[in-house]
Amino acid sequence: MQPLPKELLIEASGGDIGAFEKIYRATSDYVYTIALKVTGNRADAEEVAQDVFLKVFRKLGKFRFESSFTTWLYRITVNNAINASRKSTRRRSGQVEFNDNIEVADGRDRTREAIEKEQNEARVRSMLETLNPDQRACIVLREIEGMRYEEIAEVLQVNLNTVRSRLRRARETLCSRAQQERSIQ
Amino acid sequence: MKCTEARELLASDFLDGELDKDARGEVVKHLDACDGCRRFEEAVRRAAVDPLRNAPRETAPPSLWLKVRLGIEHEQERGVRAALYRVWRSFHVPWTAYAAASATAAVIIAIAVLREPLTVPGSTRASLTDTEGLHEYIEEQFSILAYQDTNGTGNGANGNGADSVNFGTLLEEYLM
Ligand SMILES: [Zn+2]
Q1: In percent, how much of chain A has pLDDT > 90?
Q2: Domain parsing of chain A, residue ranges
Q3: Cα separation of A69 and B40, whole Å?
Q4: The pTM is what?
């Protein structure tokens, strides 16, 4: 996520909906991606993203520019996504994503590329499903957002060693899952 | 460097480019000499890193902005309504306030009525509710009576002494 101009943030904080839409356009894909990777389904991800932007609009007036806006936005997103993930029954039932897959599979003219993309998405989703929400958030910020440990620690408000150990545990879990899969095949 | 130490770093700082040049050099040296750790590093990358790092960014659904905008408008409307309600509330007096005001007024009137008989017109102290004032009033009355006894209606030794005595109202003075 690129840093946004301070003037734009100030305009939006005064209730300017046009300025706020510009912020939304610049950040919504990042917010939605994190929400989707952490919650594991599109319905929850959309709800999370909507809540995040409403919160941002509501609280922007009180934002003091002492920390970076993007760090603040990441924090709200991750916290909301973790909470939604803990509460949601959709991930556990797998219902929503199953229906999504059927919809895609019904399409006639799917290219090889599209099929591969789908398979990769399904793989990533099932990988992340094996992790707990805290590990998931940490690994998403590292691997998908490409953040350094210090940035992750700032977003999650934990210390560097917590970031380190969450990543290590998450990777251990992913490796043993891959081993199990190989032994089944 | 031991294998356990190397593997800890291989699953975190080394993999994520968080090590300084010297520490990184140490791990690379270990990898050059240890087949087991090399295989471990490959396995971690394949199973836990590459699929995630290569995952494309999602695009937010087009309907999302509409929902956010509607949410904002809804909140703004609610905010206006709440502000209007606050203004209305500031002018509105609840019945309990009326009741409290009436009760207070009744108590004040009751006190005023009860205090009235003890008020002495022309006295140096308007109120005689306190005992000190009462004593003063009684002493004053006695001293008047004593003065009357000695100078006025008493033995009549000094006829003009009666002129200086205050008998109360003008009507009383006329009748006497
Ligand atoms: Zn080794």
Answers
A1: 70
A2: 1-95, 111-185
A3: 39
A4: 0.70
